Amino acid sequence: MSHPQAKSITTVFKKVIIALSGLGLVGFVVVHLLGNLTLLRSDGSAFNAYAAKLEGLGGLLAVAEVGLLFVFLTHIGSTLTTKKRNLSARPVAYRQWKSKGGDTPSNSSSRNMAISGSLILIFLILHIWQFRFGPGMSQGYVATQGQEQIRDLYRLVVETLKNPLMAAFYSLVMVLLGLHLRHGIWSALQSLGLTRPRTLKPLRLAGAVIGVVLGVGFLMIPAWIYFGVSN
Amino acid sequence: MPKIKLNLEIWRQKNAKSTGAFEPYQLSDIDDDISFLEMLDLLNEKLIKEGKEPIEFDSDCREGICGSCGVIINGQAHGPLQATTTCQLYMRYFNDGDTIVVEPWRAKAFPVIRDLVVDRNAFDRIISSGGYISTKSGPHPDANTHLIPKPVADKAMDDATCIGCGACVAACPNASASLFTSAKISHLGHMPQGQPERSRRVFRMVRQMDLEGFGNCTNIGECRAACPKEISLDTIAQMRRDYLSALKE
Fold first, then answer.
1. Is-contact B45 B106, C-beta < 8 A?
2. CATH T-level assignment (fold) for domain B120-135+146-248
3. Judged by CB atoms within 8 Å, which residues 23-62 of B form the interface with A?
């Protein structure tokens, strides 16, 4: 049996796209955090070696970057159109609106996903511009690994995060990332229909814990470098 | 019996086309054992005596089972209590001298008809798009020919308790009708009679829900808190499961 209705992108289907792309990005965030933990070795050699290894992947890295960009654009595009629909769904705002609370996922995270997401996006543009397209070996950021010369990305990270403004902004965004994921991970499972009456609450709790742990994990890095690493 | 005095700020709107505004009212000598709707009745009697237009609001059974009544009271659908319709909200939950703001449900799909009354035909159109079983009912089948596990029957019954009041839409920051639509899909989808049209039903009802201009669910859960029948959020997950498995067909 074919369903002509199935061809249009419904709100339910759009949430599936948001959920899948979101979970993909969570996977990226986990890998990114694990890689960044090498920053905690204070001579920076581990981090530089890790970065050099990634750069050494060449074509594979390019494919990964394009893929990641695609996932990001999918997530951003589908959430933007969802937000647009949702803004138009209530043309006259309430004079007063108050959460009814209770045992529900309604909280500052779930109600402000667009705000946290937008700020993370602004951060992302800055972050990529600072590090992916930032100064490299030709600008004197050179470290030696054995007999090889590699990009001293560690020095760039330390210089950037020693700037109090940058450290504050990076920290703020990591808090927002934690808040975004506090709702996002569970919400993705719910959008994919993976929650059951019995697993609804445990999954909500697990998603929130994983989200907050990822946020705190990233938050450690600017804090560690700003307070812990000497120039 | 304690009597209280209230300051009310109530949305007045002549018809769908006019722009409404809040009007202040004062009402004293309110017995705190009367319901919120009875309080509005008292106010209307007073307005009629003063030769003014009474405030229009919906109500029918006044025992919490019909889904007719429902207004936003101080920013909350059906007022401050959980699992309660406006008609079952009693004045003892308010204090003497309180100011209460009363607004209609607000959503593009629920246009205001007059004052606190909104047009909820969008819900009816969602039901007529697929929220039914089109088999001949015929005579009753013999008992126990269709064995349904108790938890499944309970879940179907829980979802069937939806009275279609629209509080889920009103409370949702996105004005989404997902809790209503999913309850109406799920209570049939759990029963053997609902199986033949299960895929068609979910596609049609979701599509109609979208066509009506409701927002998209972002899993915030305000609907669950506002629902007088406490329909669970996993009902929305069930709708998505049904949708995805119907896509595979």
1. no
2. Fumarate Reductase Iron-sulfur Protein; Chain B, domain 2 (1.10.1060)
3. none
CB spacing of B215 vs A197 below 8 angstroms: no
Flag the least confident range among A29-38, A40-49, A103-112, B2-11.
A40-49
- Could B75 and A96 be called an inter-chain contact, meaning their C-beta atoms sit closer than 8 Å? yes
Q: Is-contact A106 B77, C-beta < 8 A? A: no
pLDDT at site B173: 97
- Domains of chain B, residue spans: 3-103, 120-135+146-248
Which residue of B lies nearest to A17 if distances are taken between CA atoms? Answer: B244
Residue A42 pLDDT greater than 50, yes or no: yes
Q: B186 touching A, CB under 8 A?
A: no
Residues of A in contact with B80 (CB under 8 A): 100
Report pTM: 0.95
Q: How far is CA B139 from CA B136, B142, B190, in A?
A: 9, 9, 21
Count Cβ neighbours within 10 Å for each residue of B148-177 and write b for 16 or more, e otherwise. Answer: eeeeeeebbebbbebbbbbbbbbbbbbbbb
What is the predicted pLDDT for the residue at A2? 47
What's the pLDDT band for A231 if we cut at 50, 70, 90?
Answer: low
pLDDT at A5 over 60: no
Residue A120 distance to chain B (closest CA, Å): 18
Partners of residue B108 in chain A, C-beta under 8 Å: 88-91
Fold topology of B3-103: Ubiquitin-like (UB roll) (3.10.20)
Q: What confidence score (pLDDT) does residue B105 get?
A: 98
Q: What is the ipTM of this complex?
A: 0.94
